[in-house]
Write a structure and sequence with these properties.
This protein is of the alpha/beta class. Helices cover 40% and strands 16% of the residues.
Length: 283
């Protein structure tokens, strides 16, 4: 492992859905930015962004309950509804809820839904919101995702080697140029072992379209500047969702990242960083 790939969440928070591991980068006097990951990923996908942004921002990163190095346990509520509530808890824990202390939020995949739910249902306020290939519009989940979720109890019993191969193939199907082998290994590893294997299928089984349906009709209420970024070669969520989502959010702008798949942070980091940096600088 190189120093650039090393990633350590050195702080903990006991949330309503279990222990959350998190970290903070940058000067304590800098304006705050919070990065949200999606599924089946972790804050690891934001490692390079967090370090780059930390030159001018105070950057908060976290692994959601049931993901990455955060707690994974039987019976755990790791649904999108739970994640939205936990995010609200964390914002308060971090001191980012008082007037004038609101953060900029950059959210990927279902982290976008988590950020939108926290804002629309739980009153979280953001200075700016950047959504990167977000889960925000129906239909929700690929055919494989629906298969895993509908038969979680069967897939949980797969032989470990077969499970690892399945997860690796699934995460590697995001489109674009594809994830580097070392990155893919880091994203697969938390889903393996006695705790990781059932956790992978648990989080899928608990998420369904109703969590999107609950907020999709309220996107006109989203306040503050919004940027929607999308990889044009996203194999998981059609790029057409970018314009559709932006049309529902007052004043939202779209930035398409040519040739990138669903994990734009890995496929086109320079292009995405340029778009996000420009957006943050406008504030």
């Amino acid at each position: 492992m190189t120093a650039a790939d090393d990633w350590d969440l050195d702080r903990t928070y006991r949330s309503a859905s279990g222990e959350v591991r998190w970290a903070i980068l940058g000067s304590p006097d800098a304006p705050p930015v919070v990065l949200l990951h999606g599924t089946p990923f972790s804050s690891y996908v934001w490692r390079a962004f967090a370090r780059a942004l930390a030159d001018r921002w105070r950057v908060f990163v976290w692994d959601m309950p049931g993901y990455g190095v955060s707690e994974k346990s039987a019976g755990q509520d790791v649904s999108l509804a739970a994640q939205g509530r936990v995010f609200g808890e964390l914002l308060d824990h971090w001191g980012l809820t008082a007037p004038g202390a609101e953060p900029v939020v950059v959210a990927h995949d279902f982290g976008g839904c988590v950020a939108l739910r926290a804002h629309l249902l739980h009153g979280a306020r953001y200075r700016r919101l950047a959504l990167v290939d977000p889960v925000a519009l129906p239909p929700f989940g690929s055919a494989a995702y629906q298969l895993f979720g509908g038969h979680a109890e069967v897939f949980e019993r797969l032989p470990p080697a077969l499970h690892r191969a399945l997860v690796r193939e699934y995460i590697g199907s995001t489109g674009g140029p594809g994830l580097r082998s070392g990155v893919l290994d880091r994203l697969v590893e938390p889903w393996c072992g006695d705790a990781g294997q059932p956790a992978f299928y648990r989080q899928i089984a608990q998420n369904d379209q109703r969590f999107i349906d609950e907020i999709a009709g309220r996107y006109g209420e989203v306040s503050g500047p919004v940027l929607v970024c999308w990889g044009t070669d996203d194999a998981w969520i059609p790029v057409a969702h970018a314009e559709e989502l932006a049309a529902r959010i007052p004043g939202a702008r779209v930035r398409l990242i040519e040739g990138a798949g669903h994990v734009v942070q890995e496929d086109a980091p320079a292009e995405l960083m340029a778009a996000v940096w420009e957006f943050l600088g406008e504030g």
